[in-house]
Structures are given as structure tokens and as C-alpha cells.
């Protein structure tokens, strides 16, 4: 199953989130067909779930500039996740932190590379309900310039070791990847991990992101273009949604429809009742 990517350009003065690899329409159709065939019925009663996070700090050396982010920044990032996912009834708890110095993994981890495979096989913990986060540098090779990437719930059974999220270490709160240093790179990537597509998936054509209450959007939004409307008749673009590509400061919400989809995705593929 293809990983969902969330990347920025190499520019330090005006970086942009740009989609590296998103599922094609055919791949999305296959995922949705599988979801409908396997969908686990869920209750309409609002419940809550507490999900474990295993954080793997992968750095090139022991310095902060080399990727060795402190516990305080990890704690701040978990706090950001909890605020963002409160409306979904999801709480996140840091269950453990590992620290590994590997310049090769730090520099070269990216989708389908030998470095990411070795990193995940060595470090991943927990089961389908555990979010493994790997913070790296994305400095060279096919991963150069990435902000992050994630797997979808439907891929867990066929590729359990690959499951998780990989992010740029400097995108956490207090990092240097402005305007993407308030922690919403992980909010966005965790959104894929719980089953959400980008708000602009499929452009203006149905079914889009398979969520009814996110207005259709022809393409990703950057910065914070208030009033942008790329699919006339469907409402203004959901630029404040965590699953768009706007600046961290512009991202403020998930919708009830996204919460309902997540509830079904987690029950179906991760065995999580929500």
C-alpha cells in the first residue's frame, strides 16, 4: 500500500508542503473497496480511546542540530496531538522513547529504501494500535526535503513492520522548520495513520476524500489563503483542516465526518473501539 507523503521544498526561506507520493485514484478505489468489504459496524455512542506512541529519535550525532531532539519537545508534540484529536475522542500517551545514532538512517530513511526498512525492523514496538513515530533528518537520497510520510491502516496486515509515521525532527514544536514547526506535520501524518486522505484527494470529483463534510478542493492549499474556493458550488476550500497543506498556524480542525471515518477505520483495521 502506498505511503502518504508530506514534504517541503529545499528552500529555507519559503518552504512549501508538496505532495511527494499520494495514492492514485485507482489505489484509493481499491482501498475503499476493501474498506467497504471488511467494514466493522461501530456504535454511534461516543467513546474514547487512549493510544500509545513509541517515539524513535534517530539522529546523526548527539546534538540537537543533528536530530537529537529533547524529551521536552517530544512532550510538547504529544500535547499538540492531544489537542488536535480531542474532538475525535482520541488521547495519545507516550509509552516509550528510543534514541539511536545512525547517520545513514537519519540522512537516507525514505519510503521503500533499505535504510527505512532496517530502521523500522530494528526499532518498531507494539501492535496495530500503537503509533510508532520516527524522527529523522531527510537530508539526502530520495527522501531529501521530506517533512514526513505515513502508512494507512489498511496496509497493516500485509506490512506490519512498515506501519507508522516518519517525520522531520525539526517540525516538532520549537523546531526550526518554520512555518511547519508547531507540530502539525505529525498531526497530519497521524491523520493518514488513522485512515484519512488529503482534503484535496481526487480534486473536485466525487468521492474526493470519502468524507462528506470536507468541501471538495481541486488542489492543495499553501500558506493560509482564506476564502479560497477551487471547486465552485461545494463551499470554500477546507484550508484550516489538518489534512490540507497549509502552514501549521492555519491548521485548526478535523470535521465530524472525518471523526466518523476514523472511528470505522480504526475498528476495521486496528482493532480499536472508539
TrEMBL record:
Coiled coil: none annotated. Pfam families: Peptidase_M43 (PF05572). This is Peptidase M43 pregnancy-associated plasma-A domain-containing protein. Belongs to the peptidase M43B family. One of its GO terms (molecular function) is metallopeptidase activity. Keywords: Disulfide bond, Hydrolase, Metal-binding, Metalloprotease, Protease, Signal, Zinc. One of its GO terms (biological process) is proteolysis. The keyword Repeat does not apply. It comes from Sphagnurus paluster. Residues 147-266 form the Peptidase M43 pregnancy-associated plasma-A domain.
Amino acid at each position: 500500500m502506498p505511503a502518504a507523503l508530506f514534504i517541503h521544498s529545499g528552500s529555507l526561506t519559503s518552504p512549501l508542503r508538496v505532495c511527494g507520493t499520494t495514492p492514485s485514484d485507482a489505489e484509493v478505489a481499491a482501498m475503499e473497496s476493501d474498506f467497504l468489504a471488511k467494514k466493522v459496524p461501530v456504535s454511534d455512542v461516543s467513546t474514547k480511546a487512549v493510544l500509545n506512541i513509541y517515539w524513535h529519535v534517530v539522529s546523526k550525532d548527539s546534538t540537537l542540530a543533528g536530530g537529537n531532539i529533547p524529551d521536552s519537545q517530544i512532550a510538547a508534540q504529544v500535547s499538540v496531538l492531544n489537542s488536535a484529536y480531542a474532538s475525535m475522542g482520541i488521547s495519545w500517551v507516550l509509552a516509550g522513547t528510543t534514541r539511536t545514532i545512525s547517520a545513514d538512517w537519519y540522512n537516507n530513511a525514505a519510503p521503500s529504501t533499505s535504510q527505512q526498512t532496517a530502521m523500522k525492523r530494528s526499532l518498531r514496538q507494539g501492535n496495530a494500535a500503537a503509533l510508532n513515530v520516527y524522527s529523522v533528518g531527510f537530508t539526502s537520497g530520495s527522501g531529501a526535503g521530506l517533512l514526513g510520510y505515513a502508512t494507512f491502516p489498511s496496509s497493516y496486515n500485509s506490512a506490519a513492520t512498515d506501519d507508522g509515521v516518519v517525520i522531520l525532527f525539526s517540525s516538532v514544536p520549537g523546531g526550526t522548520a518554520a512555518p511547519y514547526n508547531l507540530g502539525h506535520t505529525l498531526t497530519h501524518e497521524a491523520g493518514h495513520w488513522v485512515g484519512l486522505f488529503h482534503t484535496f484527494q481526487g480534486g473536485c470529483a466525487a468521492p474526493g476524500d470519502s468524507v462528506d463534510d470536507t468541501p471538495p478542493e481541486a488542489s492543495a492549499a499553501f500558506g493560509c489563503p482564506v476564502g479560497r474556493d477551487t471547486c465552485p458550488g461545494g463551499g470554500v476550500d477546507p484550508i484550516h483542516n489538518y489534512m490540507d497543506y497549509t502552514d501549521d498556524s492555519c491548521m485548526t480542525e478535523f470535521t465530524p465526518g472525518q471523526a466518523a471515518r476514523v472511528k470505522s477505520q480504526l475498528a476495521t483495521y486496528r482493532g480499536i473501539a472508539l
